[in-house]
Design a protein that fits this description.
β5 (about 125-130), α5 and β6 (about 145-150) form a beta-alpha-beta unit. Strands 1-2-4-3-5-6-7-8 form an 8-stranded mixed β-sheet, with helices on both faces. The protein is built from 13 helices and 8 strands. The chain has one domain (about 10-310): Rossmann fold (3-Layer(aba) Sandwich), CATH 3.40.50.1820. The protein starts with 10 loop residues before the first helix and ends in a 9-residue tail after the last helix. The protein has helices spanning about 10-20, 25-30, 75-80, 105-115, 130-140, 165-170, 175-185, 190-200, 205-220, 220-235, 240-245, 260-270, 290-305; strands at about 35-40, 45-50, 55-60, 85, 125-130, 145-150, 250-255, 275-280.
Length: about 325
């Protein structure tokens, strides 16, 4: 299916957007056979999504300033076990921004609209970092439809977010400051330097992942990015997870700079039916070894789910 996106600006901004877009190949070319790209019409404009595999639907929500392509390294293995449904959240990737605020709940409502149009009444949910907040809001809005959860680097509550990152995010999203950061973020050298110093650490992120990160950053809607980050940093999902009785898998990197790992681990140890996997010697950036290890964990979790289905799966 033909790709669509927001029209580029002018001058240097247009050149940056064109160069970034060229680094993202259509999903049908970039990934294994069977990967499909689709669109649905929404009041604000098109909503883009990707699908692959067969079986129980697993809905994956990308992270901050991301897109469906963030999961391309997961698709070859996970599509053997599940029907993957991966939307570009509104304002990111190829999906149009919302006219209103881009809260995690508003983004979740758009994903639910997609699932309704695809006639998916039962599914598993997964989210990456801020995308975990969207997955959790989907759970809050339709708790009987979710069978199990996969939360990768979840911001479960303000106290589980590293203090340095909370301060950094608060300053970065201040009026006037965020506009400057968005402008500078469209310059490749500066964008890569910031990610390396403030987010990814010493991980040797491969070139393809770096290209995708920059392309997503350039084509993200700045207002959507600012609103989503501010909302996601303030949310507290512990009461929601306490009330829901389904199984949850939590994945975190041992050296991730965004989380207070001890607090996340302490919560997971208290919640029944919760598996936490801490991948040592890994940070927020994804390298080949981290991808392999997290996929080993995910495949094991999904295999357990296939042998012992959650009662919700049998509901009408």
């Amino acid at each position: 299916m033909a790709r669509r996106g927001r029209a580029p600006g002018t001058g240097r901004e247009a050149s940056a957007l064109t160069a970034a877009s060229e680094s993202i190949q259509p999903l049908s070319e970039a990934l294994a056979a069977g990967w499909q790209e689709g669109w649905i019409k929404r009041p604000q404009g098109p909503l883009r999504y990707a699908t692959a595999g067969t079986g129980i639907p697993l809905v994956l929500c990308h992270g901050f300033i991301g897109s469906a392509e963030n999961f391309e390294s997961w698709v070859p293995r996970l599509s053997r076990h599940r029907q993957l449904v991966i939307p570009d959240l509104p304002g990111f990737g190829g999906s149009a921004p919302l006219p209103g605020a881009h809260t995690s709940r508003a983004l979740a409502a758009e994903v639910l609209a997609l699932l309704d149009q695809l006639q998916l009444r039962r599914y598993e949910l997964g989210g990456l970092c801020l995308g975990a907040a969207v997955a959790l809001e989907i759970l809050a809005m339709a708790p009987d439809r979710a069978q199990r959860m996969i939360l990768h680097t979840p911001l479960l509550a303000p106290g589980s977010v590293a203090r340095t990152f909370r301060v950094q995010a608060r300053l970065a999203t201040a009026p006037g400051v965020f506009e400057l950061i968005s402008f500078l973020g469209r310059r490749r050298v500066l964008a890569d330097l910031y990610r390396r110093v403030a987010v990814e650490g010493n991980a040797e992120v491969d070139r393809r992942a770096a290209d995708l990160n920059f392309a997503n950053q350039v084509r993200a809607d700045p207002r959507a990015a600012r609103e989503w980050l501010r909302d996601g940093m303030a949310a507290d999902f512990r009461a929601l997870l306490d009330a829901w009785k389904g199984p949850v898998a939590v994945l975190v990197a041992g050296d991730d700079r965004l989380l207070e790992l001890d607090r996340v681990a302490e919560y997971c140890s208290r919640r029944p039916r919760t598996e936490i996997s801490v991948i040592p010697s890994a940070g927020h950036g994804w390298d080949a070894e981290l991808i392999r290890r997290q996929l080993d964990v995910l495949e094991s979790f999904l295999a357990e789910a296939e042998s012992v289905p959650h009662p919700a799966a049998a509901a009408g």
